C-alpha cells in the first residue's frame, strides 16, 4: 500500500516516526521499584511501549506519547525522591529504523495535549533540533519554538540549552509545544530534555 492511500493515523506511526525514548534515574536505594512502578502507572493502552536495559521506547500519536511520558514522570516524582529523567521526542524520518517518506512531505500539525497539574516542581534543560537539509534558517525555527515554550513555563537561556521551571505539567507542555511548533516547518524534529524533581540543590537560579 502506498503512503498516498494510507490513513493519516497509520502514516503518522509508520512513516513519520513519531515517538519517544526516556530513562528514569531515581536517586534512592530502591530505584528499581520506583522505575517499574512509574512505568506501570502510566496508561499504555494507546501507545506501544518497549523497555530495555537502556531506555523505554514509546510509539503512538504525538499527544498519546506525551501523555504517557508525563504520567510516568509524575509517578516517579510522586515518590518525593530526587528523580532525573532524560527524554527524547522525535517526529519524522530519518529518525525511524526504516523510512520511505519523501523529503518534502510534511503531515498536518497536531495540537499540544492538556496535561493535568501535578503539584510537582520541575526544572529542566531543554534543547531542540529541527533537522532540515534544505538550507533554511533553523535558528529562527528554534527561537520561535522557545517563544512558544515560554508561554507555558518559565524559560531562561543557559549554555547550549534553554532552562524551564514550573509544574512538571507546564515544563513538559512547554517542551511539547516547542517540538510541535517546529514540526509545522520541518519534517524531522528531535527534542531532548533533562528533567529534575526534588533536587537537593534545586530551584531556579
UniProtKB/TrEMBL annotation:
Gene3D superfamilies: 3.30.70.930
Pfam families given in the database record: Ykof
InterPro entries per record: MTH1187/YkoF-like, Thiamin/HMP-bd_put_YkoF
Record-annotated Thiamin/hydroxymethyl pyrimidine-binding YkoF putative domain positions: 18-96, 122-201
Protein name, per record: Thiamin/hydroxymethyl pyrimidine-binding YkoF putative domain-containing protein
Species for this entry: Cellulomonas fengjieae
